[in-house]
Amino acid sequence: MRSLLFVPADSDRKLAKGLASGADALLIDLEDSVAAEHKAHAREQAAAFIAQHLNVPERPALIVRVNALASGLADRDLDAVIAAKPDAVMLPKAEGAASVIHLDAKLTAREAMHGLPDGHVKVIAIATETAASLFAAGTYRGASQRLIGLTWGAEDLSAELGALTNRGEDGRFLDPYRLARTLCLAGAVAAQVTPIDTVYVDFKDRDGLRHEALDALRDGFMGKMAIHPAQVDVINEVFTPSSEAVAKARAVVAAFAAAPGAGTIGIDGVMYDQPHLRRARQLLERAKIAR
User: Fold this and answer.
1) What is the pLDDT of residue 158?
2) What is the pLDDT of residue 289?
3) Would you list the domain boundaries of the chain?
4) What is the spatial distance between Cα 88 and Cα 284, in angstroms, rounded to a whole number?
5) d(Cα 62, Cα 87) in Å, to the nearest integer?
6) Which of 17, 76, 77, 105 is deepest in the core (most CB within 10 A)?
């Protein structure tokens, strides 16, 4: 998944726009974008939307962001939406493996209640929204077979830290949030799941979004969340390997295949070793699954 677009679950109009946006996944939100008095209605709308579009060809992944486990609202969220068979649940304010294990148990019980196969509903965890979560970012490996991705957030973290802002005058994240970003990336790779970059909140600044997405791609992230449909095309473009990159990766893979047992090879005067081969294979895999 290159692009994951947040859509408030209580807005039919925004759900429809999200469906037409070209995003690889819709993050149907029951948390921050839905006021407390609208939560019950949002749950009903989320379940109805998922059920209506579950069998639509070429649909995006349908992922529900539930409320945090500590909020007291997550059980009601899960009770409402799991019967509709979402592809995944996004868990906010996760604090390491313990949070994912806790959610896994809740999902297992509801899948059994609704006749779904065990493990049908996958999990993406937001790994950096509390101070405590930073110290648990390396614990996700082996937590659950459901876990398919880790992402990070700076807004809730900055509020918890009591910060005045999370970005400097140049628009770049400040040190505490760059640390959170790095811990998320390393935690995802260690857990062998997809690392997903956070949102870029200024949805009118396409150049800023592109720059931040390119930075994320350079460092190893495989996708990025969006808060507006206008961001989707930029994100998809950045995280879709170019034809030139694919050709280069194929050349690296072919050269190693032609020299079994070689630790290094030379192509056009440049030396390549095993890490280059791994990166080439990863890029080709991303190109194959890019929609």
Assistant:
1) 97
2) 73
3) 3-239, 243-289
4) 25
5) 5
6) 77
Q: How far is CA 228 from the centre of its chain?
A: 15
C-alpha 168/C-alpha 130 separation (Å) is 20
For the chain, give the number of residues.
Answer: 291
| Beta carbons within 8 Å of 185's beta carbon, 6+ residues apart | 195, 219, 220, 221
pLDDT-derived band at 98 (thresholds 50, 70, 90) equals very high
Please say whether the beta carbons of 126 and 112 come within 8 A: no
Report the run of H or E that residue 49 belongs to, with start and end: helix 39-53
d(CA 28, CA 50): 9
Cα 194 to chain centroid distance, Å, stands at: 7
| 266-283 tens-digit pLDDT | 998 899 998 899 889 988
CATH topology of domain 3-239: TIM Barrel (3.20.20)
Structure tokens at 146: 């459901």
- Quickly state the pLDDT bin for 285 (edges 50, 70, 90): confident
Phi, psi of 128 (to 5 degrees): -140, 30
Rounded-to-integer distance, Cα 141 and Cα 135, Å:
14
